[in-house]
């Protein structure tokens, strides 16, 4: 492998370049330009790795495989998956997007080794928690906490990049990032998507909150839940099903049905004074399920703000750190979101 490729894949990516690349790729995919999206990835991260890359770059490789498959290049897609397996990283090819990959004659041998590696990785997966505490907490002082769940499929590393701890701790709030114990593919975890167990997801959230309160100076009466996409849905279910005693929520792109939004649960949430903020991408709106959730919450008398992020779809907007701060101020202090 040439030195350029090795240096690219052996390093942690520049986070500014990484974020800009993902935003541009999302734009190109929304414009139905998969070849341009693939060209962008190849220009920024050429070739394939020969060592296990940073988890952010695993995401880039999985996007490459997906784009090759979309462009009718199943062998090139399989090359990506094989490179990951050589690095000890297993993948899921269950999606219909990879039907042509599964039809390749060489796929069967790859699948046997990949399935063994995926089974091992799934058995070893555990709920993960990454916590950032504000400076200046002394003498037994306790602080509110914001527990954030990644999207589906996703991981806490990318979530932490996009929901930066400093935007949260600067407001005197503990930032806690949770990663599901349900592994979908290398670097990708799920809460309820693709056959994952939503009951296990709720147990993961409960375990994370128990550990957070046990190990850090958390005020249990001021826990806020949040997340992106499927993580937002899992967070809302944890709140309304009372898996954890949350005071409010800040959720981005919560477009799935929330099973916990029953009249009884909503009435109890109202009695507890639950407040929340739902944020959605302008080009992803209207969304029938999210509108139904918003209507149900408001009809029950909950204080809920709805914010449309301009010029973005089902994604994290570039100015999201500032939006997180305003949303937390609304939930915890009653300020406008």
Please characterize this protein's 3D structure.
The protein contains 14 helices and 9 strands. α10 crosses α11 (230-240). The model is unreliable at 1-6 (pLDDT under 50). It has a 7-stranded mixed sheet with strand order 1-3-2-6-7-8-9, with helices on both faces. Strands 4-5 form a two-stranded antiparallel ribbon. It folds into 2 domains: 3-123; 126-333, Alpha/Beta hydrolase fold, catalytic domain (Rossmann fold, 3-Layer(aba) Sandwich). With 337 residues, it is of the alpha/beta class. The radius of gyration is 21 Å and the shape is globular.
Q: What labels would you give this structure?
A:
337 residues, globular, disordered N terminus, 16% strand, seven-stranded mixed β-sheet, alpha/beta, two-stranded antiparallel ribbon, Rossmann fold, 2 domains, single chain
């Amino acid at each position: 492998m040439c030195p350029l490729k090795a240096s690219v894949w052996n390093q942690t990516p520049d986070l500014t370049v990484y974020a800009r690349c993902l935003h541009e790729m999302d734009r190109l995919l929304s414009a139905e330009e998969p070849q341009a999206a693939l060209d962008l990835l190849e220009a920024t991260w050429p070739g394939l790795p020969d060592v296990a890359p940073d988890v952010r770059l695993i995401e880039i490789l999985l996007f490459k495989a997906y784009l090759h498959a979309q462009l009718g290049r199943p062998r090139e897609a399989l090359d990506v998956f094989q490179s990951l397996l050589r690095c000890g990283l297993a993948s899921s090819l269950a999606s219909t997007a990879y039907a042509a990959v599964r039809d390749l004659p060489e796929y069967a041998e790859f699948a046997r080794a990949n399935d063994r590696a995926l089974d091992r990785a799934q058995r070893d997966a555990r709920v993960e928690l990454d916590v950032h505490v504000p400076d200046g907490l002394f003498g037994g002082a306790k602080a509110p906490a914001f527990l954030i769940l990644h999207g589906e499929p996703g991981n806490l590393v990318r979530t932490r990049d996009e929901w930066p701890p400093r935007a949260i701790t600067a407001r005197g709030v503990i930032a806690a990032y949770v990663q599901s114990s349900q592994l979908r593919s290398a670097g990708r975890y799920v809460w309820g998507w693709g056959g994952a167990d939503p009951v296990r997801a709720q147990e993961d959230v409960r375990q994370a909150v128990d550990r957070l309160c046990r190990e850090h100076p958390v005020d249990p009466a001021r826990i806020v839940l949040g997340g992106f996409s499927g993580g937002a849905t899992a967070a809302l279910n944890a709140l309304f099903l009372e898996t954890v005693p949350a005071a409010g929520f800040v959720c981005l792109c919560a477009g799935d049905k929330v099973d916990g939004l029953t009249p009884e649960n909503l009435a109890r949430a109202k009695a507890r004074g639950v407040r929340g903020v739902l944020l959605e991408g302008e080009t992803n709106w209207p969304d029938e399920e999210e509108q139904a959730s918003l209507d149900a919450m408001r009809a029950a008398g909950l204080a809920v703000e709805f914010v449309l992020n301009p010029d973005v779809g089902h994604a994290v907007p570039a100015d999201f750190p500032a939006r997180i701060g305003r949303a937390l101020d609304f939930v915890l202090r009653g300020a406008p979101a």
